[in-house]
Design a protein that fits this description.
Elements: H1 2-18, H2 36-56, H3 63-91, H4 93-118
Helix pairs in contact: 1-2, 1-3, 1-4, 2-3, 3-4
Length: about 120
């Protein structure tokens, strides 16, 4: 669930950033400026993935194991973030929206599976 939550955050931030018009002509922007959106998306997605995995793994009890699960969620978020590049190249903003929807479906299915297993 953590990887899907982080991936959804990455997709949604990139979706929002890709729709923004450029504030100035492309030749006048600094080379660092276009990298701010993807950097924020990656950092926010990694943080969201880790926090969700930490919260979901509360029944584990052992902090070391919870931290290991959170780090695995961060790595899974990085894999989903890697899929945003081909999704955006193939279908533009619609590709990012489809990948975000897929992440949300995975969250819902995983939540249902965990709730059914806990009951």
């Amino acid at each position: 669930m953590g990887s899907a939550a982080g991936g959804a955050v990455v997709c949604l931030v990139l979706f929002a950033v890709s729709g923004q018009p450029s504030p100035a002509p492309a030749g006048t922007l600094s080379p660092v400026m276009p990298a701010i959106g993807p950097s924020l998306a990656g950092a926010g997605g990694a943080a969201a993935g880790a926090l969700v995995a930490w919260a979901v793994s509360k029944p584990v009890g052992n902090a070391f194991r919870r931290a290991a699960l959170a780090m695995m969620a961060v790595m899974g978020t990085a894999l989903v973030a890697g899929a945003t590049v081909p999704a955006h190249q193939l279908a533009g903003r619609a590709g990012l929206a489809a990948l975000a929807a897929l992440c949300l479906v995975v969250i819902l299915v995983a939540r249902r599976a965990f709730l059914d297993a806990a009951a």
